[in-house]
């Protein structure tokens, strides 16, 4: 969704759920549901009718990657995680503890970094050709 918000900021107008769905190769219903989460956090707003659609409610420099992550319900960051095949196995327990500690530390670092990057930072990189 950060991708969509940056496009909206660069284009300066509104986008319909259908156009966003094409951009993301998904269904407009999925877009509406996802954008509703962003609307509930005050990042976008919507207008019905001809010429309506989704538009930014805040400037790109007021939205961080962490804001988007949180507005989307803080989806999982890592695909890997502890094993639950043998919950009574002490080896599995030891491995799981180490994996969980590493994932927790990595998550903290990643979320801190996401909080430092605004969508305006990324839009500037796009317009500068980076």
Automatic annotation (TrEMBL):
GO terms for cellular component: cytosol. Gene3D superfamilies: Winged helix-like DNA-binding domain superfamily/Winged helix DNA-binding domain. InterPro entries: Tscrpt_reg_Rrf2 (IPR000944), WH-like_DNA-bd_sf (IPR036388), WH_DNA-bd_sf (IPR036390). Transmembrane segments: none annotated. One of its GO terms (molecular function) is DNA-binding transcription factor activity. It comes from the Bacteria. This is Rrf2 family protein. It comes from Longimicrobium terrae.
């Amino acid at each position: 969704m950060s991708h969509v918000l940056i496009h909206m900021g660069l284009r300066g107008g509104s986008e319909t759920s259908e156009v966003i769905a094409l951009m993301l190769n998904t269904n407009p219903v999925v877009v509406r549901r996802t954008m509703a989460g962003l609307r509930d956090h005050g990042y976008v707003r919507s207008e019905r009718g001809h010429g309506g659609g989704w538009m930014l409610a805040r400037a790109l420099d007021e939205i961080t990657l962490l804001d988007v992550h949180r507005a989307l319900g803080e989806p999982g960051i890592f695909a890997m995680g502890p094993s639950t095949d043998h919950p009574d196995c002490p080896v599995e327990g030891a491995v799981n503890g180490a994996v969980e500690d590493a994932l927790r530390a990595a998550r903290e670092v990643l979320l801190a970094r996401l909080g430092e990057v605004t969508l305006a930072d990324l839009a500037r990189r796009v317009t500068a050709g980076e």
